[in-house]
Amino acid sequence: MSNIPQELKYTKEHEWVRIEGDTAVVGITEHAQSELGDIVFVELPAPGAAVAQHGDFGVVESVKTVSNLYSPLSSTVSAVNDALAATPELVNKDPYGAGWIIKLQGFDPQELTALLSAEQYQKEIGG
Q1: Where are the domains of the chain?
Q2: Buried (b) or exposed (e) across 106-125, using 16+ Cβ within 10 A?
Q3: Helices (H), the chain
Q4: N or C: which end of the chain has fewer CB within 10 A?
Q5: What's the CATH fold of domain 19-105?
Q6: CA distance 74 to 50
């Protein structure tokens, strides 16, 4: 069974979001990184870029495939995880910690209601 932290919200496309005050931290789930395999490159948006809920904001490339990244919220990118440029495997090693991908600010908290709970995400991936 995949590690699915209870405090996070999830998308059907396997992104997670953690709210820290007025910032939303976004990454991909442990399930997603295990399906992708070894991640070799993460294409990140520029800070200040606008993203739409469920709109794509970047790409993650693994030894198996290339996959788009989708934003769980409409917002503005306030930070990107620059460490991923040199060490994209952080997404594999610590998907909910050091492997975070972007941070968002200026989101509508109402949009969180459209996301999946940990239980709903578990069902989505067949757990």
Answers
A1: 19-105
A2: ebeeebeeebbeeeebbeeb
A3: 30-36, 83-86, 90-93, 118-124
A4: N
A5: OB fold (Dihydrolipoamide Acetyltransferase, E2P) (2.40.50)
A6: 8
Q: Is the pTM of this model over 0.90?
A: yes
Give residue-wise pLDDT tens across range 42-84: 999 999 999 999 999 999 999 999 999 999 999 999 999 999 9
The candidate with the shortest Cα–Cα distance to 48, out of 84, 10, 11, 77, is 77
The two structure tokens encoding residue 37: 């395999």
Sign of the Cα pseudo-torsion (32, 62, 17, 95, in order): positive
Strands of the sheet with 75-80, listed across from one edge: 9-10, 15-20, 23-28, 102-105, 75-80, 50-51
